[in-house]
Design brief:
This protein is α/β, with parallel strands linked by helices and 266 residues long. The chain is built from 8 helices and 11 strands. The chain has a single domain, classed as Rossmann fold, CATH 3.40.50.
């Protein structure tokens, strides 16, 4: 087990879903967010902090031997917010990791790094980035930053391009992009226990019949997702119509993110 696992963005949707599961992986789980984290469980440490505050991030990482980085802006927003949390904040995290023994990092990247690929295209980790939003661009930056820290300093990072991680798919596009909570938990475990990690791109997706992404390059980690979104197809069909073929949700892997406007400042 890890001695102390840092989870950033612990008050967000994915952070809340993983919170109760991380006690299996670490003696102590240090949870951090700018939002309220509630009451600490016996194995938890709660730390309020802003990723844009370099000093606070330096203190946050101290004593941790693993980092599950879920923090930052997770949707399209004003560039100033994305800049502080996803770009400056990530740089602060990597500098803090470098100063404190370079604990392994799982970086929550996104399918929006490649959102302009069509849904009839199948891609792998070597396919060029095609971001669909400023948010997607920030995740491209994060992957490049992690790669530079690996090449320059040996900092290991799993670049997990999360598709859609919810209890179950919420729309028809997610029949391809969905990752179950159980499969994500299993992936986190492999990232922090595998003998060798490196800096792989990993598609964060369950074993879906409709998946567009080839994960074979990360096969050496031994992660084998078990769940399949297809079990929810009938439920989705009954709840909502399938988007027409001309709709972005049916055309692009990034769905409606390709239509997001660039948000002005202010």
């Amino acid at each position: 087990m890890l001695k102390r696992l840092l989870v950033t963005g612990a008050a967000g949707g994915l952070g809340r879903a993983m919170r109760a599961r991380m006690g299996k992986l670490a003696d102590t789980v240090r949870l951090s967010d700018i939002a309220d984290l509630g009451e600490a469980q016996p194995h938890e440490e709660l730390v309020s902090g802003n990723l844009a505050d370099a000093g606070a991030v330096m203190r946050l990482v101290e004593g941790c031997d693993g980092i599950l980085h879920l923090g930052g802006v997770s949707v399209e927003d004003k560039f100033s917010k994305i800049l502080d949390a996803n770009i400056a904040g990530l740089f602060n995290l990597y500098e803090a990791a470098r100063a404190h023994g370079m604990p392994r990092i799982l970086f929550a990247s996104s399918n929006h790094t490649i959102g302009y690929y069509r849904q009839d295209e199948h891609i792998d980790a070597a396919s060029p980035m095609r971001p669909d939003s400023l948010y997607g661009v920030s995740k491209c930056f994060g992957e490049a930053l992690a790669r530079m820290y690996f090449e320059k300093f040996g900092q290991e990072t799993a670049l997990v391009r999360i598709g859609s991680c919810f209890e179950k798919p919420r729309n028809h596009r997610m029949l391809a992009t969905w990752m179950s909570f159980d499969d994500f938990e299993a992936l986190i475990g492999r990232v922090f226990t595998a003998p060798m990690l490196g800096c792989p791109i990993i598609w964060g997706v369950s074993n879906n019949d409709r998946s567009w992404w080839d994960n074979s390059a990360a096969g050496y980690l031994g992660w084998r997702p078990k769940d399949n979104a297809e079990q929810f197809r009938a439920e989705l069909d009954a709840a909502m119509p399938v988007p027409p073929p001309s709709d972005a949700a049916s055309l692009y892997q990034g769905g409606h993110f390709v239509n997001e406007p660039i948000h002005p400042e202010g």
